[in-house]
Structures are given as structure tokens and as C-alpha cells.
Amino acid sequence: xxxxxxxxxxxxxxxxxxxxxxxxxxxxxxxxxxxxxxxxxxxxxxxxxxxxxxxxxxxxxxxxxxxxxxxxxxxxxxxxxxxxxxxxxxxxxxxxxxxxxxxxxxxxxxxxxxxxxxxxxxxxxxxxxxxxxxxxxxxxxxxxxxxxxxxxxxxxxxxxxxxxxxxxxxxxxxxxxxxxxxxxxxxxxxxxxxxxxxxxxxxxxxxxxxxxxxxxxxxxxxxxxxxxxxxxxxxxxxxxxxxxxxxxxxxxxxxxxxxxxxxxxxxxxxxxxxxxxxxxxxxxxxxxxxxxxxxxxxxxxxxxxxxxxxxxxxxxxxxxxxxxxxxxxxxxxxxxxxxxx
Length: 341
Prior knowledge:
The protein is an alpha/beta fold and 341 residues long. The chain has 12 helices and 12 strands. It has 2 domains: 5-175, Aldehyde Dehydrogenase, Chain A, domain 1 (3-Layer(aba) Sandwich); 177-315, Aldehyde Dehydrogenase, Chain A, domain 2. It has a 7-stranded mixed β-sheet, with helices on both faces. A 5-stranded parallel β-sheet has the order 3-2-1-4-5, sandwiched between helices.
């Protein structure tokens, strides 16, 4: 039996209430399982991801979100969703979009995150059993069994997705990253907020800042000092080995860099830096900066700056707390799903 929109909203809001009150023992069990598949999924990162999902599942936010669309109350489509596994439950927004819009989900989970999303849908189906016939996890998405596809992966996997699902309506996402713009007047607290954009999830997400642009004459060493609140990242073995690897390469090749002891700062025209490295590049005017960014327009997920002063940027510290309507790759998923009907 299909659920009406009111029932769908109430069920997801109730899921949010359940997650918010999750007993510590249950969280520890969930965290222990997830880290077996992905050593980056430390409890702090799982907590951060849960906070983001709780924001999604706020009833007022859900109502405001879906209120922007005319969702048809007709039998929904079968939507294939291929999920990434770089940060915990990164595919949840796609799952939520599919189900809240009245469609059925056929999901291919990432091998790096096979436990967390099913845990959430198990709880959802306990809250509202009518969802059960509309949620299926598959080893692979068969093109003949779905009406449309939403897939997230690397640039290489995106080429495969485009080829394999070319006959179906699709949203296919590939590698993106985020950047920070420094103007030189930032406060200590604002630099700390930028640090959240850089270091949360160890820099593994497309919303993580992997490069900053600084005005000519800016002392990059001052930024290194300002980010010291995040120096404990070096205590994670996975992060530490990535940091050591990059440092060794730069030393062997005698490439100029600044080593803070927990992160490397390197001047580089490229956009995506390795884990443990932050690229930077100078600019001498806004026009000069805009010209530098133009070639990367399709590779940038978020731009952050002091109080959002730079065009189409957001405040420091906000990349990892998107709203429901802050769509990945700037593609309106709900609009895509509505247009299928």
C-alpha cells in the first residue's frame, strides 16, 4: 500500500526522533560494525553524519523542502540509486529524495558503507511498515528493472554509468571538491570554522575544502597556526600514512612546501589535493581570481569565504551542514524525480 505525502513526512520525522534518542550502546554497536568496512568511519565522523541527517529529518525542514514541488500522488517509479562510501551515509539524501517523492528505491550500497543506510531503513520500516515494499538493496542495478538512475562515484565510474544507463533518465555525479577564499581579514574563529570545512571527515568528502586562494602577500604560515585546533587528525593512522606519503614525495623531489606537523601546505595550480595536504594559490584581484576558477566550474561543489562575501559562496564552517535543498552537483534531485511522471 502506498503512503501519502503526509505519512511519508511523519515517518521520516519519527525516524529523526528515533536517531536523536539512540541509546549509547546501540550507537557503539553501529559504529563498531561500520568501521570494520571503512577505517575512516571513526565514531566522531559517524556522529557528525548523524547530526547532518537529523537536520534533514526535522519535520519543519521536510515540509519546507517538499512544499516547493507539486508531488504527484500516483504510483511511483522504480529508481536505482548507486551510493558512494567516502563518508558515512553519504547516499542518504538520495534515498530520502526517492522515498519522500513517492517512488520506490533499488539501492546498490558501497562496499565501504554497507551497514549504516540499511540500519536507517530498518528503523524507518519499523516506524512505518508501508515503506517495506518500496525499499530494496541490490548487488547491482539492472537497467531493465528501473525507470531512472541516480549514481555517484569517481570520474572513472561515471563513464561506466553514462554508458550503462544511457537509455534511462539519469543523474550521474562524479568527482568534485570545495574551495576556500581568503581575503586576509579573517578572525581566529573564522579560520577555525574554515578548518571544519577542511578537516571534517579527514577531507574525504566533495564538500571538503581541498584548496584555498589567498591574496598576494598573505602569510600562509599564519593559516597553519590558526588551524592548530585540528592537529589531532594526525593521530588517525589512515590520515597519518597519507600525510607521510605526500611529505616523503615532496622531500624526495625537493618540492617547496610547508609542513605543519599535521598537514602540508603546498602552492599548486591543481584543485584536488591529497589527504593531509592543502593546496593554495595566490590572486591579485577579484577578476584574476574569477579567471583562475573558471576552468574548474564543473569540479567545484562549494565555495566558502568570510561571511559569504565572494560571489555564490557560503560562510566558513557550513560545507558539511547542507540544507535539504542544497543539492549535490547543483542538480535538483526532486525536480528530476517529479519530471519522470
